[in-house]
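Lecture 7 notes. Example A: sequence first, then its structure tokens.
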Amino acid sequence: MAHEHTAPAPRFLIARFSALGDIVALQPVLTALRTRYGAEAVVDLVCLERCRPAAELLDGLDELHVVQRGTGEVLPALRARKFDYVLDFHGTVRSRSLARSLDVLTLKVDKQAWARWTLIRGWRSRPVRGFVDRCFDVLRPFGVVPPPPEARGEEAWGALRVPDLPAAASRTVVISLASSHPGKHLSDAVIEAAIQAAIQHGCEAILAGGEAERSRAEEFARAHAHVTSIAGVSTTLADTAAALRFADAVVTGDTVTMHMAAATGTPVAAVWGCTRPTLGLAAFRPHAASVNILPEVSAPHRPCSKHGATCRNTRAQDSGHPHRCSQRTNPSEVAGWLDLVLSRTAP
């Protein structure tokens, strides 16, 4: 229930231009804003056109403004909205330029850039505070509070705007094969172990990914019964989120799928490669049975890069290079976790 207040509800513009997972991770913040102010507040979001599918999952937005190339494309519409505050949850040149152009009081998230850089360099071991928690720090002056520590899944996030699809006819495990960055790809061995664990528990394995993963996913599907590939087909991000809601478990890298699984309250094994949860971008309040699985490398908590584009163990660009962190996860860890979770959810 919204708190009582006498002043007019504020008008917020959230600036978060990318990426898909980071935009989905704004849902807990939007839910808390609506809890504080109800429908009286104005809450808009500006993002890149390519991230529209993620933004359209968010519940609680009044208007979505999308940018193809530059923020000048949306400036007239944004000025007409007469915002009281810009919430800069990105901290880039683009978001700072937008705030200056609007001449509106701007509150900025702490990017922890130095802390993240020193983690990558190996000069720091303490994890960076989570992105969503840092967004809540920005909203503290407005009396917006995060969900209680024990809240998980939709109780903490609120509900994403996903289609109300019928439940699957059988139990399912969703396996998300890759990200746009080479350091976030699941290895073939991990995918095979997850498929075998799913089949042993009578579950259908659904392989998800982009067009780049289509042939690999289809090869796995041809090799196994009870495996379906949706990688590279016309399934929308919203449809994928709906599939995650009904799944018994999810195995994924550090991708938007990880965040959607956390939001829907589905147990998720996040298999980390060249990025690490220490960077502060792990899933927010996932199901209690969820785990982070780190690669078997020296200093496993030390990330190689912010986005997984480079790996300190190899200069090869091949995402499947055996020295790459994302290829050095122990498949038995994934299979063991699935065995535990699927045993608990058995009918």
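Example B, a different protein, same format:
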Amino acid sequence: MTDSPLKDYYAERYQGLERQMLSELKDRLIKKREKLTGFFLNSSREALNMAAKVQEEEKNKLAYMSFSWLNISLIENKPCLQIDFYDYDWIYGYPWARSYMPADFLFEGFEAFSRDALDEKYFVRGSLQPAEIRTLFWGTVDKMLYVLAGQLKYILPMITMLKEFGQLEREEWFYITFGTYIDWHERMAAMTPELDLDDIDANEETRLRRFEDKVFHGKVFEVLNLNQCRFTNCLFDKCVFAGTILDDAFFSTCRFRDVEFKDVSLRGTAFLENKFLRVKFTGSDEADANIMTSDSGEYYDPIKFVQCYLREVTANYDLTGREEINCLSWDCSW
């Protein structure tokens, strides 16, 4: 944006209004997470049932399920997301099934925001027209979608647990994505082949992977990106996580014995029914990251320990004070 009345107006007024609106949107979506989850899962069930009927006739395999915002829907005053089902050739072709879901929930505060942004008391009409201000709205909508994405990364993975999802035939590599149509898309969930953490290729994708019933003994997880990975019923014995990214990772019914988490990023990490014996968390100050990290709306839940047993656990932040922890919930048998 070159020097202009519009640039001055953006810096002096619009940017502040935008930041306030995005903050309120984030708070509203967090507060309504449960309702938002139900809404997306119900819409996904309908779309999955439709896709199953198409797949039965056309024999397409599923590689991508994408949720895309349509700019045209806002122009038509019918905000909606487009749900597409693709095979491996999706970048070069067309979806083999398509559905839609309303997105009015995203714009509860947008009318008041746009009214304030177009208030003539705050700009000189002779040098700046309302139509010029409206051109800023598209960038704001993009930021709103990033705020929504911060919540959907905790919601869309649940789609893979729906019985309607299980009826579809999928490719070996499957992803759920969210973004804007024919523009940016972020991967929100995945079902991928098993990954051997002891033999990782240089260009191997380590995010969004799943590990079940694994035993890691004396393993050093060093400078790995395990963002949004899921570990189920795994044993970590005499292991070290050093400089590793575990943002939004999920550990369920795992056991940690003589383990150190050193300089590990734990934003949004969740531990469900895990057992910890002689475990140290050191050098990480990101565990309380209930934050929107930038104007783009990147968001992480606080670290969670739900129904976990902790014995001889030390950390540079308070664990036992977290209401999610129930240290006496079950027997710590190894």
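Note on Example B: The two ends are 61 Å apart (CA to CA). The CA atoms of residues 63 and 119 lie 47 Å apart.
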